Structures are given as structure tokens and as C-alpha cells.
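Quick one:
INPUT:
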């Protein structure tokens, strides 16, 4: 009964919204249903993003207050700059994170867009407020454990926030800006920024602290990649073969993976005919599939059995959705 009333309320709201946008528009049931579906998907997506950012803020705050801050360790990026300034000036970390990230949010507004800047502002402000009002206990003073687990929780927090559409650290925004201005890659720009930060830490704090901080950064970056890319790392495989039908049957029946087949044109061998070089072009089916990295060896072996001369192209996929990603169940 509650779901019916919710649907009626949403329907009435959308009808009024459509009529205001165009008074002469005849509102059909199909248009209303489309609007309801769009509103529902957007609302669920917004709630999911906010939950991910909330979990990210809590994880990052826990890593900072329970591990890094009590032991004077820093991280890379804007967070590392905030930690370093906090150690040298005794200013609150929550205030520094908020202030130092402001220029990067402005850059993000210009380089990426308003939606990103708004969500980044929400996430960074939430982190600053959490650090100010919530007090997490110190877990350990062991330097190795502090480096590894402090980086783990901080990286997990940043990764969850990124999956929610926001950021807790503006380094990536600066890196994108530098790559456009200087022509360097984003990875090179991040490396340059972190070299400057850790060099300053070695000079202002100590070499030992800088080395442990580098270990913290490595743990955070690996955890960040793990959270963003997921547990399973997928690989896209493009297969060009004369026996495309057999390969497609093998992938769908033996490996129980989905395939996409599209047509291409293949250049055949060159033939000499009265001193004139000719090249025949023929159509061929190209097979594309997505598998996990653990299945690469099996796929290569199966292709080798069908066509040793098949041309196989593989590339990593950072993220994906939709389609038949998981294996098909075996039908009995």
C-alpha cells in the first residue's frame, strides 16, 4: 500500500512539472512512466553515491586520526600537504584540509565541471567536519603498522569517495590541469607533486619519517586502485580468425562468457600478376569478449586448439557495467 501511495505522489509531482514546462503538452501515461523511471534511477543513484562518500569520509578520517596524525606520518597529495603543515604549525588538520583544497576545487570546476566541484566540496567538507567533531582512538605506535594500515584506510576512503563521484584529495585535479598545460601525463604530474612533498618532509621532519610516509603513500595508492577497479580485473579480448564461429561457440559454451561479433574487412596475401601487386579484401567476423585475468591462459589454450594463427588483442578494463559480465549458468 505504501509503495502505491509513493508512486502516486511521484506521478502527481511529475505531471505538474511537465505541465509547467509546457502548458499545451498532453501528458500521456508513457511520458509519465518514463519520467518516473528516470526520477527513480536518479534518486537511487544519488543515495548510493552519498553512502559511498560517507563511508569514504569515515574510513579516511579513521586512517588519519588513528594512525598517521599521532605518529607524524604524512601521505602524498593535498592530504600530505595538510598533514605536513599541521605538524609544523600545530594548526587543526580539519581546517587545513578544507582551506588547501579550495584552489583545487576551483580548478576542478573549470577543468572537469560543476557537478564534480559540488560533490568534491561536499566530500571534503564532510571530512573536515568529521575530523573536527569525531575523535578516533590511536590504534598503534608501531611505525610499520602505522604506514601500512594508515595508508590502507586513507586509500580506501579516497577510493570510496571517487566511486561516489567526489574526491577527498585535489591532487588528481591538479595533475589533470598540469597535464593539459605542460603536456605531461597525469601519472607524471602526480609523481612530480609527490616528489616535492616527500622531499619537503625529509628536509623539515626527518628522512626516516619521509621514507615511512612514502610507504604510506604506496599502501594508499594500491588500496585506491583496488577499491576503484574492483576485486576482479577484467580484460577485453578481440579475436580475428578464419574460424570465428568455432571460437564464438567455445567462448559461450565452454567458458560460459558473453561475446559480441561485428564485421570487419581483412587484407589477404599479396599476389603478383604480371608484375602488378594486388591485394584481396574480404569480410570477416571479429569476436570480442570480456574475461577475468585468471581466464587468459585458458582462453589462449582454447584458441590455440581451434586456430593457431588467430590474431588476438588484449587490453585491461578498469571498470565496466551491464552486459553479461558474470558466467552463464550451466544448463542441465
Amino acid at each position: 500500500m505504501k509503495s502505491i501511495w509513493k508512486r502516486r505522489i511521484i506521478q502527481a509531482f511529475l505531471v505538474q512539472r511537465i505541465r509547467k514546462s509546457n502548458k499545451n503538452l498532453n501528458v500521456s501515461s508513457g511520458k509519465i512512466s518514463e519520467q518516473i523511471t528516470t526520477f527513480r534511477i536518479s534518486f537511487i543513484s544519488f543515495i548510493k553515491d552519498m553512502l559511498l562518500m560517507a563511508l569514504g569520509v569515515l574510513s579516511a578520517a579513521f586512517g588519519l586520526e588513528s594512525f598517521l596524525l599521532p605518529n607524524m606520518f604524512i601521505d602524498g597529495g593535498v592530504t600530505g600537504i595538510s598533514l605536513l603543515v599541521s605538524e609544523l604549525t600545530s594548526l587543526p588538520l580539519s581546517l587545513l584540509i578544507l582551506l588547501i583544497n579550495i584552489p583545487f576545487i576551483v580548478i576542478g570546476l573549470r577543468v572537469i565541471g560543476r557537478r564534480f566541484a559540488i560533490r568534491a566540496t561536499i566530500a571534503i567538507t564532510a571530512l573536515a567536519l568529521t575530523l573536527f567533531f569525531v575523535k578516533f582512538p590511536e590504534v598503534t605506535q608501531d611505525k610499520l603498522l602505522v604506514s601500512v594500515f594508515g595508508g590502507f584506510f586513507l586509500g580506501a576512503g579516497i577510493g570510496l569517495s571517487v566511486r561516489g563521484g567526489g574526491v577527498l584529495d585535489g591532487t588528481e585535479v591538479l595533475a589533470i590541469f598540469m597535464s593539459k598545460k605542460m603536456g605531461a601525463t597525469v601519472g607524471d604530474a602526480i609523481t612530480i607533486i609527490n616528489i616535492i612533498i616527500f622531499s619537503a618532509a625529509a628536509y623539515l621532519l626527518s628522512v626516516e619519517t619521509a621514507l615511512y610516509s612514502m610507504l604510506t603513500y604506496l599502501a594508499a595508492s594500491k588500496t585506491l586502485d583496488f577499491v576503484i577497479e574492483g576485486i576482479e580485473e577484467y580484460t577485453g579480448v578481440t579475436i580475428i580468425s578464419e574460424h570465428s564461429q568455432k571460437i564464438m561457440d567455445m567462448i559461450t559454451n565452454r567458458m560460459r562468457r558473453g561475446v559480441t561479433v561485428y564485421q570487419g574487412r581483412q587484407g589477404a596475401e599479396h599476389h603478383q600478376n604480371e608484375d602488378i601487386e594486388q591485394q584481396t579484401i574480404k569480410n570477416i567476423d571479429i569476436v570480442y569478449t570480456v574475461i577475468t585475468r585468471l581466464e587468459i591462459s585458458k582462453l589462449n589454450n582454447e584458441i590455440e586448439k581451434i586456430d593457431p594463427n588467430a590474431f588476438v588483442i588484449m587490453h585491461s578494463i578498469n571498470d565496466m557495467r551491464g552486459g553479461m559480465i558474470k558466467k552463464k549458468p550451466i544448463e542441465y
